[in-house]
Amino acid sequence: MWKIRELNGGDQVYIRELANLHSRAFPDFFLTQLGEPFLRTLYKGYLDDPDSGIIVAEENRSLLGFIAYSNDYPGFYKRLIKERIVQFALCSLLAVLRHPSFIKRILSAFKKSESVQKTEKYVELASICVNPFIEGRGVGSGLINHLKSKVDFNEYAYINLETDAVNNERAIGFYEKNGFVFSGMYTTPEGRKMNEYRYSESE
Fold first, then answer.
1. What total of structural domains would you count in the chain?
2. Which domain holds residue 42?
3. Do 176 and 168 meet the contact criterion of CB atoms below 8 Å apart?
4. Is the predicted pLDDT of residue 109 greater than 70, yes or no?
5. pTM to 2 decimal places
């Protein structure tokens, strides 16, 4: 039977597996196109950041899925840029040489800290990924329930997440089934329509 736990500083070996699973689950996503070294740097940032973390579902030490989250999303991006900008630049160099248009999207992504400011304190569910070969076993819902159980809703108003608004009915249905409520929509500079969803104990 699979189990869920929070990764800690001694779990650096998982970083490669996280990046590989992300690549397999989201082969057409922009971050995947930047390469696994880029993804490894990103997820190591979540693991090392004092206000962020990674929750994994595993079975016999085999990774089934994970969530990356942050209790201070704007601060996370600021620290990520400050501490790892050279690593990100080196990791994405090959992808940028192949696709020069990626430069604008990368710069836009690193301005995230300017666009996620909210009046309330909240927890960002930044990434959730489940092995596509084991969908239907409740791993994704289990990961979300574990995150919900960690959040002190006396301190944080809600859990926030963003997902594609177009041709994404399956994911949207999954979030709604797990108690997330639509809170707004916006369009990225690249023209990608995104929905925002929130979960709070008052919903």
1. 1
2. 3-199
3. no
4. no
5. 0.87
